[in-house]
Amino acid sequence: MEKDCTFFIKPVSDLGEVTIERIIFNFNGSIREGYLHLLEHLWVRANKSWFDDYESKMNIFNALTDKNRITFILIYTESTVNTNKLIFDLNFNEQDFLIEKKTIYEERKLYSDSTPDVDIVLGSLRTIEAFDLIVLKNMMHQMNYKKIRFHFSSKNNGKYMKNPTINIKKNSIIWKDSNTIQLKDFYDYKVLLTILKVFKLTNESFCFNINEAKENYEITFDDYEVFDFMLKNKDNVLKRYQLLLTNTQLFIEQTIYLFDLFGFNLDILDFWREFNWEVLEK
């Protein structure tokens, strides 16, 4: 297991204290079609009593499985919630395995999609029928997991993580023409990418393309005038973005996205104020 991470995040609402915890299962070896979805089911089943108690307190739980990993997201307000009591060392038995195998098979029949991208996650009816308990147990030896906790509080408890200053320096821009910006620093590229993502969230007509194949990082705009308009109205863009974040689901997605991109808690408000906007202006 990797070391757990805990972050304290600045006040965002008057809801009191809320914790978002993300439990991530990663796998080092090859993954057979549909087996991660099966493991998701079996892990929840192994912790059924814990989840029954957890959800009875109106806490939120969701699971996201893709072709490489399983992510469990828990959102709770109860200070008594203890995820350390969850079972991670699973000892699968034949009965549980067969029950969940049948459940997944019936679920899969509800979906008409049968493409490689869908089948690698959910499995096809054929591969689900062929699920093997020994294969699953062998796959577990290649698994590791980590837990990341975000604590949101409407009260200042003095434990907030200090955000580093983020700035694109002028010499990070290699060149810029009527519709293209090119950067030479990967960190600066991530900063600019964050800005563009915010622009896109607040204006669907704003479109850009990224070329990461080159030594440098090239960003091209479908319509530079739209980008220029967003720059000139960046304060209003920020206000609209903050309003969008009142949607809990989007707020969680953005928090996770920023942590994945930078590796720490990024405060967009401070970032927006400190950013060197001159490098983007004509």
TrEMBL record:
Q: Which InterPro entries match?
A: Metalloenz_LuxS/M16
Name of the featured protein? Uncharacterized protein
The record's listing under SUPFAM superfamilies reads: LuxS/MPP-like metallohydrolase
Q: Molecular function (GO) terms listed?
A: metal ion binding
Q: Which domain of life is it from?
A: Bacteria
